[in-house]
Design a protein that fits this description.
The protein starts with a strand and ends with a helix. The longest helix is centred in the C-terminal third of the chain and has 35 residues, at about 315-350. The protein is built from 4 helices and 40 strands.
Length: about 350
Amino acid sequence: VEFPVGAVAQMLGGELLAPEKAGAIIRGVGSLDSGGPGDLAFLWNPEFAEQAKTTQAEVVVTAQAIEGVPCILVKDPQAAMLMVLQQVYGMRHPAPPPGVHPKAHVDEQAILGEGVSVGATAVVEAEASIGAGTQIRPGAYVGRGAKIGKKCVIHPNATILEHVEIGDRTQIWSGAVIGKDGFGFVPNSGDRRDLSKGTTRIPQIGTVTIGDDCEVGATATIARGALDNTVIEDRVVIDDQVFIAHGCKVEQNSVMLGRSGLSGRAKVEKNTYVMGGACIGLGRTIGEGSIVGSGAVVIYSSVAPGSEVLGAPHRPAMQERRLQVVLSKLPEQFPDLRKRVKRLEKKLADQG
């Protein structure tokens, strides 16, 4: 992908402060540190202004001129960066042409909207419905009766099982499994502590519904419920290797980072972060606008709206940070503490 600097400035609606650079060719996008000749760099955080003064990038997109550095002035460098990256990404990842690949299987009872593409070895089962402009990439599977909205991307080898419903403009990344049966078993002995007679699986007749403008990361798993649906609302971002159990609900504008997980019937209210490796216990609720920190375990109680928690089990983040500071000093302080306790015990015994 190549653009003259002048064309980049025009595309961004910016002012090129180094007219002699107008014909220079931009071949890539780099950071202020790693960018070199032919690269476009961005200064959107004033903290990195000193690095911008020594960058080797061809030109820097910035909100303020940098002495001695060729610049394109824009109002919002971060927005400009997103625009450029979207352009470059689109050129490097062109959409596949509409139509069904000869090596794909689409059941005659499936419904494909206008402009749908189905890649090689992909499977779309009977009664499935695919909205206009959606891409079913090679090797993906769409089960019987599943409904996928408009302009979605189901990446290679993603699995959308029976009767799952997905809204518009949602991406499901490779290896994700949407709609597997939730974890439900009954011990044949009638006693949950006695597994000697094996178990019987509980049929899971709910499904999974995912809203508009969502993203589900690679190898993430979202299980269907036994009776109630598992619900992912609009604009939810789910990172790689996240697990969402049966009957859970993740409300709009929430983010779940890699390897975090929800146990059955857990609820994440809107505008909430669940950070990497965090675990939410059975039926617990994460209140609106909260942050569950990395590795936190929410098991004994729910999290109030607007909270920030850390630790296992979870506690207020500041309290957990203070506790970790104290614990880190215990090894060097412990011998002295032990002696002081022994002296106190002896003194009390003598007084008694």
